[in-house]
Structure formats: C-alpha cells, structure tokens
Write a sequence for this structure.
C-alpha cells in the first residue's frame, strides 16, 4: 500500500508543473541581478575615473592662484 502511494507521489512530482512558473521567475530575477551587479561595478569604475579627471583638472587650474579673504 505504501509503495503505491510513493509511486503516485513520485509521478505527481515529475509530471505536475504547478511550481514551474515560480522557479522560472526566480531564475530570471537571479540572472538579472547578476547582470546588474556586474554592470554597476563597471559604471562605478568609469565614474571614479571621470571624477578623478575632473578633480585633476581643477587642481591644475588652481595651482598658481591663491585666494585671500577680503576684510
């Protein structure tokens, strides 16, 4: 009797597709998250480079000048 119940349970687990949509959505969200994390790390490097260049340009412009407060 238990063997019949076990085989019926295994048949349902193999052939029913109730949870398939949830698994597909989970995998899709996981892959999107991986793409976002990798692309954001590349954007961070690019923004850091741009910010550094801007600061260097400001430093080069202001090297010979001194600002004194006026009373």
């Amino acid at each position: 009797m238990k063997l019949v119940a076990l085989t019926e349970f295994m048949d349902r687990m193999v052939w029913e597709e109730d949870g398939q949509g949830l698994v597909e959505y989970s995998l899709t969200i996981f892959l999107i998250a991986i793409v976002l994390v990798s692309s954001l790390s590349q954007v961070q490097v690019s923004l850091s480079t741009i910010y550094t260049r801007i600061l260097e340009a400001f430093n080069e412009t202001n090297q010979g000048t001194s600002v004194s407060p006026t009373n």
